[in-house]
Amino acid sequence: MVCLPSTPYALVVKAKPTNTSLPHKFRVEVDEMFHDSAIVEIERLDSTSGWEWMSLTFQFTIYTSDEIGDDWYRPGNGYLYKLLPDKTIHSPARDACEELGGWLIIYGEIDHTVRVNITSQYAKLEVNSNRYWIGLTDKDKEGEWVWDDWTP
């Protein structure tokens, strides 16, 4: 149980099999947040591949308005965005995002208008010649691409 002084500004939830050798993928969506609880929907995306039950690992990241500085972009879609202007390679970029309780952008979550606003807001910084890391990797298995939120 987590006790908070007010309803969180945002809640992000990830799910994956506890046994990481299992290839199952999940879609996790926060439907509603309350002061002391949340309704979270979990959908198994590969339901045709057996296993009637399995142990799952969840990662919850809670954002309160007290933690969010002016350098975060808040488009009102339930997500927060922040540009980290240091030039780097994929793994350190991902690690820096995780230290802030987030992950690299996953394009399934971001609509065109938000993408344009983020890009135009930060374009003047000329970060990596306007190239940005996204949260897509095949580090666990060559050629098998997954997003940082563990979805295929």
Description:
The protein is an alpha+beta fold and 152 residues long. The protein is 14% helix and 23% strand. It has 2 helices and 6 strands, in the order E-E-E-E-H-H-E-E. The chain has helices spanning 90-99, 112-122; strands spanning 10-17, 26-33, 38-44, 56-63, 136-137, 146-147. The strands form 3 sheets. Strands 1-4 form a two-stranded antiparallel ribbon. A two-stranded antiparallel sheet has the order 2-3. The two termini are 30 Å apart.
Q: Which value, in Å, is the CA radius of gyration?
A: 17 Å
**Biggest sheet layout:** 2 strands, antiparallel
End-to-end gap: 30 Å
Strand order of the largest sheet: 1-4
Overall mean confidence score, pLDDT: 73
Number of helices, counting only DSSP H or I runs of 4 residues or more: 2
Determine the oligomeric state from the structure.
single chain
Q: Strand-residue fraction?
A: 15-25%
Net shape: globular
Structural class: alpha+beta
Number of strands: 6
The string of secondary-structure elements, in order, is EEEEHHEE
**Spans of 5+ residues with little confidence (pLDDT < 50)?**
none
Tally the structural domains.
1
- Give the % helix: 10-25%
Pfam family, one: Lectin_C
Protein name: C-type lectin domain-containing protein
InterPro entries: C-type_lectin-like (IPR001304), C-type_lectin-like/link_sf (IPR016186), CTDL_fold (IPR016187)
Domain C-type lectin: 93-150
